[in-house]
């Protein structure tokens, strides 16, 4: 079975036009961004990379992409640059490229939070992103915009609101230490090893309280991030926008540092129920004992043919098809007080 994130990025028909990747300080987000951007490049005719934090080379595929357009604003810092750039300047450059290109397109902006800090408020960035989202929705499927955003950014609730874009995919990185803490402290494993409703009822409030960062960077935390992580994937698809109906699906899968995988395959979570190698299964309790606890095939066959004393196989009334009504078989004990007479016969009723 293919990982859900891989299917989500390669599905041309059901691709949501907005992909939000949420991250925190306890998890590196660059490998996931590269994977998502490279996967979407294969699905669309054109691609636009807008960088405001890192250099573009961190995201560009090694083979290169002839349909890729790069707009680099990482060196343009307000107050320190000879050519200050605002959201309005970026919007002009972006829309100029979109007007010149045709067909499906992938747009990724590496840091909308940097634009918000440069602009000084949420409003101009929200207007820019709303106009950009409208342009992307007008392009052929599977056109989409990829936005990585920090969990504490004031732009996050704006991007996740239905008013911004009704259909979206929301991917959140979580540390494996966070999942291990939930399993050991609350005895609750991720689905399918536990009830899905019980896990999400516990997991979601802890995420909202930023417990993951406290576990990693707290007084008893490890103080560092692992290459492996858990991906929480929320897919919000519009079923009938006129009636305000939507379908929301939530799932978990692993991230091994370069691509998605089943969470049980992560080495950090192997002790929670993931597959173990044969040499890591631990000592065999039946080894080096003076008697044999295992059965051969012939012994198992003979054992299965032994008649059970409680099956009443000799009584045709209780064996066979079982259509006869059930009855209770009881052998009275010598101390039982069994009297067939009416115990109330002396009462004048």
Automatic annotation (TrEMBL):
It is found in: Cytoplasm; Nucleus. Pathway: tRNA modification; 5-methoxycarbonylmethyl-2-thiouridine-tRNA biosynthesis. One of its GO terms (molecular function) is tRNA binding. Keywords: Cytoplasm, Nucleus, tRNA processing. Its main location: cytoplasm. Residues 296-349 are annotated as: Disordered. Residues 296-305, 315-324 have a biased composition (Polar residues). The keyword tRNA processing applies. The keyword Lipid biosynthesis does not apply. One of its GO terms (biological process) is tRNA wobble uridine modification. One of its GO terms (cellular component) is cytosol. InterPro entries: Elp5. It holds the Pfam family Elong_Iki1. Residues 333-349 have a biased composition (Acidic residues). Belongs to the ELP5 family. This is Elongator complex protein 5. It comes from Sistotremastrum suecicum HHB10207 ss-3.
